[in-house]
Amino acid sequence: MTNYTKLPAILLLADGTVFHGKAAGKIGTTTGEICFNTGMTGYQEIFTDPSYFGQIMVTTNAHIGNYGISNEETESNKIQIAGLVCKNYNIAYSRKQADESIQDYFQEQNITCISDIDTRQLVRHIRDKGAMNAIISSEILDVEELKARLASVPSMDGLELSSQVSTNETYTFGNEDATYRVAVLDLGVKKNILRNFSERDVYAKVYPAKTSFEEMEADFKPNGYFISNGPGDPSAMPYAIDTVKDILEADKPMFGICLGHQLLALANGIPTKKMFNGHRGLNHPVKNILKDHCEVTSQNHGFGVVQDAVRASEKVEITHINLNDQSIEGIRVKDKKAFSVQYHPESSPGPHDSRYLFDDFVDLMK
Ligand SMILES: NC(=O)CC[C@H](N)C(=O)O
């Protein structure tokens, strides 16, 4: 196990607030939008979720790294967060199945982190002030210099990031002889979505973010289309909005998760907006208004669909509502085979209450 230095490090927020902590991961400097996740477990799935690309993650659970890193528990092939802010950064781990320590993992992948931060205080601050950019450094300890660097970091509002995390080449997932074929538009797809498909007799082919509907249709003749989760601002992705419009036009079965949900709304003329604070955690109650039941859901989003526009829309109907803030969590397009949810039914990590949505998608393809 690598030596853990406990050198000083600084976290500076865009509003000028400074937190002092200890260096973790690679010695260096990193920037991004700061966000927090309230999950009590599943840190590695969070680190590797491509939807977090470009974001600095604050974990509210007091212990991170305590069960180590396992090569099996990833949602993509690398760490996607821009940096980690945590309280106790445990390089000693207690799990037989773990492959390495959190420190080795972050160091190997050159990700700069900061530990020994009072994350309760930090999260209360972000909760009151809203999402903002931040910088972590364990090499520059001069706050004025950090402020100057932070000033040049772009705002998440208006940022297109999916093309940076999407696959460059197509690939397939699952059994070639499966009953159903799904074309996956990879805007930052999580592996557990593909696993959920293959468990349901679906053979998936994953396409780069900018692939058109015509190309996917000609290449794979799929029974349905999946629009994935992913990072960045959905309104900055006209290419994907056009693809979704074409799929709708052809009236193919379509399922969208998170970013895919926002794009389905945009394709129906419903705008999205940046949230004051995103939803990120594993215990968000959502009401399925078609079935009149509540699901406990896994969430990770910083943008949302504009509620009034959804309610006023003649094209879509609301299927799911967030019980914490009444925001729209699911829609379906009237007279089409297309639906989407803002939360994460593949729940990795998270409760499995919403896995039925994958079954619903398969039913649409029958
Ligand atoms: N998990 C996701 O797909 C996130 C979607 C979008 N980037 C957001 O932050 O709202």
UniProtKB/TrEMBL annotation:
Origin organism lineage: Bacteria, Pseudomonadati, Bacteroidota, Sphingobacteriia, Sphingobacteriales
Residues annotated as transmembrane: none
UniProt keyword DNA repair, yes or no: no
SUPFAM superfamilies from the UniProt entry: Carbamoyl phosphate synthetase, small subunit N-terminal domain, Class I glutamine amidotransferase-like
Annotated catalysed reactions: L-glutamine + H2O = L-glutamate + NH4(+); hydrogencarbonate + L-glutamine + 2 ATP + H2O = carbamoyl phosphate + L-glutamate + 2 ADP + phosphate + 2 H(+)
Species whose genome carries this gene: Mucilaginibacter galii
Subunit relationships: Composed of two chains; the small (or glutamine) chain promotes the hydrolysis of glutamine to ammonia, which is used by the large (or ammonia) chain to synthesize carbamoyl phosphate. Tetramer of heterodimers (alpha,beta)4.
Catalytic-site annotation from UniProt: C258, H344, E346
EC number: 6.3.5.5
Residues in Carbamoyl-phosphate synthase small subunit N-terminal domain copies: 7-137
GO molecular function: ATP binding; carbamoyl-phosphate synthase (glutamine-hydrolyzing) activity
Catalytic EC class: ligase
Signal sequence coordinates: none
Pfam families tied to this protein: CPSase_sm_chain, GATase
Pathway listed: Amino-acid biosynthesis; L-arginine biosynthesis; carbamoyl phosphate from bicarbonate: step 1/1; Pyrimidine metabolism; UMP biosynthesis via de novo pathway; (S)-dihydroorotate from bicarbonate: step 1/3
Database matches in CDD domains: GATase1_CPSase (cd01744)
Name of the featured protein: Carbamoyl phosphate synthase small chain
Function comment: Small subunit of the glutamine-dependent carbamoyl phosphate synthetase (CPSase). CPSase catalyzes the formation of carbamoyl phosphate from the ammonia moiety of glutamine, carbonate, and phosphate donated by ATP, constituting the first step of 2 biosynthetic pathways, one leading to arginine and/or urea and the other to pyrimidine nucleotides. The small subunit (glutamine amidotransferase) binds and cleaves glutamine to supply the large subunit with the substrate ammonia.
Stretch list, region CPSase: 1-180
Ligase recorded as keyword: yes
Record key words, sorted: Amino-acid biosynthesis, Arginine biosynthesis, ATP-binding, Glutamine amidotransferase, Ligase, Nucleotide-binding, Pyrimidine biosynthesis
Residues annotated for L-glutamine binding in this entry: S51, G230, G232, L259, Q262, N300, G302, F303
GO biological process terms held by the UniProt record: 'de novo' pyrimidine nucleobase biosynthetic process; 'de novo' UMP biosynthetic process; glutamine metabolic process; L-arginine biosynthetic process
Family: Belongs to the CarA family.
